[in-house]
Amino acid sequence: MADAARSTDRLEALDITRKLAAICGTPFARFAGPADEVAGRTARWVAVPGGPHAAAEVLRLAAAHDLTVVPRGAGTKIDWGAAPAQVDIMLDTGRLAGVWHEPRDAAVAEIGAGTPLRAVQATLARTNRRLPVDAPSPGATLGGVLAADESGPLRHRHGSPCAQLVGVRYLDADGELVSVGESGTEALGRATPGSGGGRASGRGPAGGAGGDPGRGGGDAILGRGEVPGLDVARLLCGSQGGLGVLVSATMRVHAVPAGRLWVSRPVWTPLEVHDLVRAVLAAGVEPAAVELDLPVPVPLPRRRIPPTHPSVVNRPDHPAVTGRPAAGSLVVLLEGGPADVTERAERLTAVLGAEAIVSHHAPEWWGRYPFAPGDTALRIEVPINDLHAAVYALRDATGGPVPVRGSAGSGTVHAALSGALPPERVASILTAVRSVLIARRGRCVVVAAPAAVRRAVDLWGELPTLPRLRSAKAHLDPHHRLAPGRLPGGL
Predict the structure, then answer these.
(1) Rounded to 5 degrees, what are φ and ψ at 294?
(2) Four-point Cα dihedral 115, 121, 122, 127, nearest 10
(3) CB distance 108 to 250 below 8 Å
(4) CA–CA distance from 260 to each of 154, 349, 354, 355 (Å)?
(5) For residue 80, which of 292, 427, 413, 371 has the smallest C-alpha distance?
(6) What Rg do the C-alpha atoms of the chain give, in angstroms?
(7) Per-residue b or e along 8-44, where b marks 16 or more CB atoms closer than 10 Å to that residue's CB
(8) What is the strand order of the sheet 45-47 is part of?
């Protein structure tokens, strides 16, 4: 009987493979390999549909055979968050790409979910425009950035990518193409022939799940969308493919700033960072970004070495250079007209003091995460007046300095714990940090972690929006076919 069952399974698997090949084309459907994993869970098939209608057929096939589907863009964040309970079909969005509806003076652009963010920026740059989106993941697609609600330094001025949405097209769990908000041409006030074939949707439950379910940030904007259905579109932000498969997004675009300057200042303590950020925000210089980098200081050699020795003379933390070991940097980005930016930089350096330096180039660490593959990566969100308390709490819990980097001006930073820490130690650190943050209306989320840590700890912490997230999942994906288990609460 067991042999017969395995034979039947093989025959069914081959049949599904043939059907996927008929939908996507033979080169674009295959059995999954060892590299086709989602947070350690290996898929059974990989399908790369050539357009929205082919992607819809893949979802209908999955529904007919009771298979689960997990979308994948460039895979830069495929190991973030919880592992799905099961991955039958990995739906690769690489062929759902392109930038449309982008006349020279347009304030919006409709962009395929599978389009690499770098390609989007290169296309828009031809008409001197850009998306004010600078997600740190190299090679990330726009769909992946939205699905993770990932943002970089420009979030200080422009908010998260989710906040810049005008509309989306997505596929629901049954394979129906849904349009919410506005498409690119609708936003330009023109008719939209063939812009999606979807219907206007009111599917989102009242007071739905919110943007990134790990952040809870989208909850503040639900029900306040300036475009009908935009609250539903924003449900997809941060859902990691668990509520729908993004096909395209219509985003606001801005003119490329003519001038950019980075003003940096060394910092030594989190409390000093707190005081400097308050001074920057009170200076009226309208920063585009206010970023913090607190690396773990590298100790100088214990044996006596002349200060002019080549091994130490160029080190930024050498006392001969700074007078004391520098813990990191606070860097402010100013954007605008060249003369205006120069004038604001002069005012800012007067505020930051003689140690401030003005540069035409970003520091090497700008727009990069402080963690590496294999680390336990944390995201801390807290009101900016309490950011220093969060960093001190993290240091106290770990027993020493921890690399911290991110937007000090908006209270969102990332930190790295060594991947060698045992799961129970990571759990105790999270408990200690979260106990400090909860009274300050802050959160600490595990973004990524080794498999043993991911299984042992609470990745999300307290999530007030969980009941509404559960309601959204039940409404949009009642059979739990889309990335089951990727969302908080095992949804």
Answers:
(1) -120, 85
(2) 120
(3) yes
(4) 12, 15, 21, 20
(5) 371
(6) 24
(7) eeeeeeeebbebbeebbeeebbbebeeebbbbebebb
(8) 29-31, 45-47, 89-92, 69-72
Q: Say which DSSP state 486 is in.
A: -
d(CA 212, CA 236): 8
Judge if pTM exceeds 0.70.
yes
In the chain, the amino acid numbered 387 is: L
Complete DSSP assignment for 308-360: T-TTTTT-TT-HHHHSS---EEEEEEEEE-HHHHHHHHHHHHHHH-TT-EEES
- What is the rounded distance in angstroms from the CA atom of residue 118 to the CA atom of residue 351? 35
How many angstroms from the chain centroid is the CA of residue 285? 27
Sequence-distant (6+) residues with CB within 8 A of 8 are none
pLDDT for 141-179, tens place per residue? 999 999 998 999 999 999 999 989 988 999 999 999 999
The torsion angles phi and psi of 61, rounded to 5 degrees, stand at: -65, -40
Contact by Cβ (8 Å): 110, 248: yes
Q: 225: alpha, beta or left, given left = phi > 0 and alpha = psi -120 to 50?
A: beta
Of 287, 292, 410, 278, give the one whose Cα is nearest residue 340. 287
Which residue in this structure is represented by tokens 């936003």?
187
Amino acid in the structure at residue 193: P
- 445 and 379 Cβ atoms separated by less than 8 Å: yes
CA distance 355 to 297: 19
Distance, in Å, from the CA atom of 198 to the CA atom of 171, rounded to the nearest integer, reads: 9
**Tens-place pLDDT, residues 295-337:** 986 554 444 445 554 434 444 444 444 445 557 999 999 999 9
Question: What are the φ/ψ torsions at residue 80 (nearest 5 degrees)?
Answer: -75, 150
Give the C-alpha separation, 149 to 57, whole Å: 27
In angstroms, the CA 8 to CA 1 distance is 10
How do strand 69-72 and strand 89-92 relate by DSSP bridges?
parallel
Provide DSSP, 117-134: HHHHHHHHHTTTEE-S--
Q: Per the structure block, which two tokens stand in for 167?
A: 């509309």
- In Å, what is the CA distance from 140 to each residue of 93, 115, 120, 151, 291? 12, 8, 11, 11, 21
